[in-house]
Amino acid sequence: MGKAGLPVSPLAPASFPELPVIAGVEFSSGAAGVKYQGRTDVTLIRIAEGSSIAGAFTKSSTRAACVLDNQAKLAQNADTNAGAAIIVNSGNANAFTGARGLESVAAVTGAVADALGLPQNRVFSSSTGVIGEPLPHDRIIAIVGDLKAGLDEAGVAAAARAIMTTDTFPKGASATVKGDGGQIRIAGIAKGSGMIAPDMATMLVYIFTDARISAPLLQGALVGGLASTFNAITVDSDTSTSDALIVAATGRSDAAEITDLSSTEGQAFVAALHGVMRELAQLVVRDGEGASKFVEIQVTGAASEDDAHRVAMAVANSPLVKTAIAGEDANWGRIVAAVGKSGAEADRDLLKISFGDMVLAEKGWRSPGYDEEKASAYMKNQNLIIGVDLGLGQGARTVWTCDLTHGYIDINADYRS
Amino acid sequence: MGKAGLPVSPLAPASFPELPVIAGVEFSSGAAGVKYQGRTDVTLIRIAEGSSIAGAFTKSSTRAACVLDNQAKLAQNADTNAGAAIIVNSGNANAFTGARGLESVAAVTGAVADALGLPQNRVFSSSTGVIGEPLPHDRIIAIVGDLKAGLDEAGVAAAARAIMTTDTFPKGASATVKGDGGQIRIAGIAKGSGMIAPDMATMLVYIFTDARISAPLLQGALVGGLASTFNAITVDSDTSTSDALIVAATGRSDAAEITDLSSTEGQAFVAALHGVMRELAQLVVRDGEGASKFVEIQVTGAASEDDAHRVAMAVANSPLVKTAIAGEDANWGRIVAAVGKSGAEADRDLLKISFGDMVLAEKGWRSPGYDEEKASAYMKNQNLIIGVDLGLGQGARTVWTCDLTHGYIDINADYRS
């Protein structure tokens, strides 16, 4: 069972992966009782002096107090010689909590700054859970001392658990890449399973690396990967108030500093970082509320990249497509309808729809080779690939989603209480 | 039980209404066995000579063959002295059926034209049901003779039943309005319960009136009402390939011809027509697949009308809002999140959210007068009003939707088979 008492997603990996230790990053988790009882719900992460920090956040116009605070602090271009910290709680999102919400953020990040001897503008925070309830920040502040005492470079798996809400499994991913003169390690954790339709960043994601790289270059590497990773997933078309992705680079690797993202080492680092981002994004979909199928939507031949994204998201968010997948019904007509409503340029007579290697529809109607039995058999797979070729241009986009099942209704008709 | 074997929606009216006879309009329904067995599935409607016809159709780029055909015929500005006919089948949408789909439309409308002695460009058609299967049009043509024999001005209720697919109850609405020198009667029927997020028109809707009014004026009256009726509802955010709304005015009323929509009589007619459109639109939501609650979303104070529509639809389509309503959970934080993702201009600290007369949130956080118990009690109602005031400008829009329940998954994970 996951922390919220839900059965573990059938799409979960067998176990939490072995993540490499990132020198200069320590974790500590504890139970503050913010909302949940009998589980950890706060994680403190200390990042060593000399680290670069980058971040991306939700574009929601009702974003949470901690998101606004993180954005303001990152925009200040704070002294990169100082250390940094991130404190995260689950159980309460501290979103739509007005002036009191900002006071809570100031109180919590102030307490962490005092305890760790850091400037307050290098202490970032995230809160995830219910929207609109005041955050009982005293409960978090009360355990900051204990959290500090427990800081440990090996604490990443416990941190991945403490930040879960309706998640049914903890999510981690890593990569190791050859730098100039040594290995560079990347390790990340994420939480998220509902309210997932990221817009610039998503959910809560923390990625750490020992690479030596400046904050502006790290930010560039991060932003360049968003479109094909966190902005390419959706569980339920609902964008969170609290999406936050923070990347910290400690510079403790033996490899030389990355000063150019287009160098061989720069490209290798960017590719590895994006690989970790993609894996974490896909893990969030694999823990999509009630999910029983993991679905890749490959759109090609669109008139533009924007059109490809529009079509891919229209298919991925269509409740009718998602329920057909849940019912293992090869109902490709609903994909046609989703393409039609997307607003993207489309020509019915050029449209081609395929499941895996099987072409179901082309040239404006059912493919002559269409085999209902084979199509239905394909739908029994746990991992599905839906191809939509618009036949118009070079625009392409791949996105990931899950099906819409009774489990989603169970979880969301009764989450808050 | 409805025709598809589903229990009747708890939001259904007690019975099908008494609709006034519209002189010059006859209906006949029969069982062609297009897909369903043991029920009627084809309706023929004959409209007398001298009638004006207007229409509005889906904007989907993958619209069905019959929609394309209707649009082409209406654009030809066909001779309004000739009579007209509409033939409708359920069980197969004849959408994404390529050249063969157009052949089916030509065959069916040609057979009706021959049988009734009408020019073929005055025979309109609609098909609703599964997408992507060839329409077995011979089965429809085989009963056209029987349908002709059964034409009857009193056949409207049977027609409302024959056009149902996953609908659980037949839908009708009417109005009578004082014209210049006599009464004008309006009667309409509709079908629709899933794939409902109209874009210009919706589902299948047929409205008849004995008003004397030219086709261009009738079209103007129709189009002016779309934004606040059919384009203001959503069940599941999925736009159909087959949405069609046709209005016919037979001119058989004793009232004088309406030659100006802004005259007293013109305004009364337009208001009555829009009232019938709104009632039919709301009936579609009341038959939303799996619906247990009817929800009105009132957005006010938006920076523009477009923004008001965007916010209203973001709230109405949010799976998290809809599942919270299904669970009778006053989880207004999900409404905040939906406003935030809508893309409309919003200021967290000006936003006000209310349920009925109860203000839940204002000035950036929970209202001081918020009473969880009262809010929860309100959610037990079958008809709910959610108010969102953005506090920015004059833009306002009201839309209607339903909740998202296990029933929706039941119906759609297994509809086609």
TrEMBL record, chains A, B:
Site (Involved in the stabilization of negative charge on the oxyanion by the formation of the oxyanion hole) location in chain: 128-129
Membrane-spanning parts: none
Molecular-function annotations in GO: L-glutamate N-acetyltransferase activity; L-glutamate N-acetyltransferase activity, acting on acetyl-L-ornithine as donor
Taxonomy, superkingdom: Bacteria
One GO CC term, this protein: cytoplasm
Protein family according to the UniProt entry: Belongs to the ArgJ family.
Protein name as it appears in the record: Arginine biosynthesis bifunctional protein ArgJ
